[in-house]
Amino acid sequence: MAARICVAQIGAAHGTRGEVRLWSFTADPAAVKDYGPLESEDGSAQFEIEALRPGKDHLVARLSGVHDRTQAERLVNLRLYVPRDRLPQAAPEEFYHADLIGLAAHDLEGREIGTVVAVQNFGAGDLLELRAPGESQTVLLPFTTATVPVVDIAGGRIVIDPPDNLFKGA
Asked: What pTM value is reported for the model?
């Protein structure tokens, strides 16, 4: 399991006083402010969310230490992390995306047919991005109980019921 979880990503600067657009990856987007200091991926910078308000399709945040647009512009695309122990325990049948990445994907007969390389969401629900062994291209599967009937984090695997001919040899 990942020791730190990505909970947000900074977008473009918003206005001239150092506010930023913020995309939250938490179940309740506004809860991102409740997890204490947020760290950059390499741990070299920490930010407290001083103020947070909804924007059109994002949040607008004022971060500690960011006082003008120039400082805010330097943070574009910065992913923000928190230690896992600051986050609530995932409910049954809920998973942190970080815990799904790297799991082996097996078909219903138990054959390993790929690995989870990412979890995407383009607005219609979560999709698992899988890569078959020896393949460079990936495929997307809906992360539903019909398509993914078994998620075994401790065992390092998921079981999928893929559409016919999705994977060569599957």
From this structure: 0.74
